[in-house]
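HipA-like kinase domain-containing protein, pasting as requested.
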Amino acid sequence: MPRTIVATRYVTPLREGGSLPAIVEAEDAGLYVVKFRGAGQGAKALIAEYIAAELARAAGLRVPEMVLMELDPALGRNEPDSEIRGLIKASEGLNLALDYLPGSVTFDPVAGPAPSAAEASAIVAFDAFITNVDRTPKNPNLLCWHRELWLIDHGASLYFHHAWVDWEERSQGRFAPIKDHVLLPWASQLTQAEATLRGKLTREVVEATVQGLPEGWLSAAESPFPTVDAHRAAYVTWLLKRVQALPAFIEEAARARAQLV
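Structure tokens follow.
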């Protein structure tokens, strides 16, 4: 379960994405990259980020420490940019933040360092599982820090929850965008990665992850479910069905890789 801390100082925006994440200092004197609930995709992006980060960590992948960050709108009162002031005001309450990794650089598939086959396969398998469309050569969302790969920016994952149309049936589907995954050329151990992922993403792990979602995010995220508990249960059902469907989308990834190498 992530810890909850209070933001104390807005440091600087990160303008790489459209949602205006920012570096913020917290009460523990640490720096964090904050994803604001008042940004474009709202609470659903935070839900996707939370679930993906927690399950990635459970699967043995490296993700910067995730925290829940309490934000007071007064934090932006001295900010000269009206867009940022508005974003902070709209994000009062709990937001999501990841530990800032100083000195990290974006992974470059040309410059390297190249990942091991095991690590590349594990990340490709995981991204197929969470339907992550945002790990491409143009936008890898991987950081190199101390010569290790760290996974960031999972807000575009779980895109089914933006509509909830035929969501149970769609959980069994293949994931064609995996053909564009930045690490696919190195992912030669997908069968082993599937077995590992299946062993680590148990019902207990999935249920505990979804149970940790802040209630305010679920109630703010438009859904067809009558209660927050029903909303949570739907995420658990989709994720467990996705685990069951692992062979299909791992086969899809292996077929896509065979066309590359």
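Note for the archive: The first helix runs from residue 42 to 58.
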